[in-house]
Design goal:
heterodimer, A: 85 residues, alpha+beta, Gyrase A, domain 2, 4 strands, flat, B: 261 residues, RNA Polymerase Alpha Subunit, Chain A, domain 2, 2 domains, 4-stranded antiparallel beta sheet, 5 helices, 12 strands, 21% helix, elongated, binds iron/sulfur cluster, binds zinc ion
């Protein structure tokens, strides 16, 4: 992973080795956050491109952390619900 | 979030999932298909091959045989320190036979009773009289990103939950929609002279009915937060385990960001 832009209200990171799966799921969760003004990601090349995630928010690091936790909670929820009892 | 299982067995799992974003459902689908590991034959050591098939063609055929997988018991290739293959990261299977006969997947003898071909009836090689084959195959864990032989699913797909609204004020009970629908969603009740939706979940949202209705009485929509999700396993792992493993993988992917921040 690489930090491309790290400012008070903007954060851009390269999520090395990842794809649409993680980035799109994260982007949607980020957009649910009232403090997030914009969240987007781009993959420049379909095969060799690395995704870059851009966040504009009151506190982008905090919002990203929160989004990661929310996404993880949802993964756990799906897991619990499909596991046979 | 709500999940309601429609049907489930060792091969297929179908469920309704409600109150989620499409991005999560899609992420799980993508991970299920190409990131959940299974076992497949990765290396074949030929001791003898007199059959009329090249070594590499037979090796490729062996690779495509689905094997029952116990994810807890085997270490992924990349994480094992042996550098090649050992009993921690691989399972050895042998195949031996002399013609005239056909060797099937069921003739593969596994060194691990937990790991065997899902089906015994896959033809591997046809031997003429006197021809012999003897080989050792090494099965290892891998993912569908590397090669399709490691894909745990044969199909994995979801669709938006259909919603069909018939405006009773406009409908003139002509029965045309019941005739036109290719999925048998409608039933025209002649006694009551009324159209009924009898198999909603089978609707493919092709909208033939709403286009053909002479009175524009039908609206077909897909709900944005409710889906029908179907996983069909090749038998290497039970479908529920494929999905829960995908949940773990997505969790770990997210965890990597936390570690970095
Ligand atoms: S085609 Fe339209 S008018 Fe005819 S039965 Fe169906 S909904 Fe009613
Ligand atoms: S949208 Fe297509 S499948 Fe669904 S009810 Fe109409 S005709 Fe049938
Ligand atoms: Zn090893």
């Amino acid at each position: 992973m690489k930090i491309i832009k790290d400012e008070k209200k903007e954060l851009e990171i390269e999520i090395t080795g990842e794809s649409h799966s993680l980035c799109n799921a994260l982007r949607t969760v980020l957009m649910e956050d009232k403090n997030v003004e914009a969240a987007a990601y781009a993959i420049d090349h379909p095969i060799i491109g690395q995704p870059r995630l851009y966040i504009k928010a009151k506190n982008p690091r905090q919002s990203l952390k929160k989004a990661v936790k929310t996404l993880q909670k949802r993964c756990e929820e799906v897991k619990e619900l499909v596991k046979p009892v | 979030m709500e999940i309601e299982i429609i049907s489930q067995d060792n091969q297929e799992l179908v469920f309704r999932i409600e109150g989620v974003e499409v991005s999560l459902v899609n992420a799980l689908r993508r991970i299920v298909m190409v990131e959940v590991p299974t076992l497949a034959i990765e290396e074949v050591l030929f001791l003898k091959n007199e059959a009329r098939i090249f070594d590499e063609a037979l090796a490729h055929r062996l690779g495509m045989v689905p094997l029952t997988t116990d994810l807890e018991a085997i270490t992924p290739r990349g994480e094992c320190d042996c550098g090649d293959h050992c009993s921690r990261c691989s399972v050895s299977l042998t195949l031996k036979g002399k013609g005239p006969k056909t060797l099937y997947s069921g003739d593969l003898e596994s060194s691990d009773p937990q790991v065997k071909p899902v089906l015994d009836t896959i033809p591997l090689v046809k031997l003429q009289k006197g021809e012999e084959v003897e080989l050792e195959a090494i099965a290892q864990l891998g993912t569908g990103i590397e090669h399709a032989k490691w894909q745990p699913t044969t199909t994995c797909a979801y669709k938006n939950y259909p919603q069909i609204t018939i405006d009773q004020d406009k409908c003139e009970a002509c029965g045309l929609c019941a005739q036109q629908c290719p999925r048998g969603v409608y039933f025209f009740d002649e006694k009551e002279n009324k159209i009924q939706v009898v198999d909603l979940e089978n609707c493919s949202m092709c909208r033939t009915c709403s286009k053909d209705c002479p009175n524009q009485a039908i609206t077909v929509e897909g709900l944005g937060d409710k889906f029908i999700f179907r996983i069909e396993s090749d038998g290497s792992l039970p479908p529920w385990e494929i999905l829960t493993t995908a949940c773990d993988i997505l969790f770990q992917k997210a965890e990597k960001i936390l570690d970095y921040l």
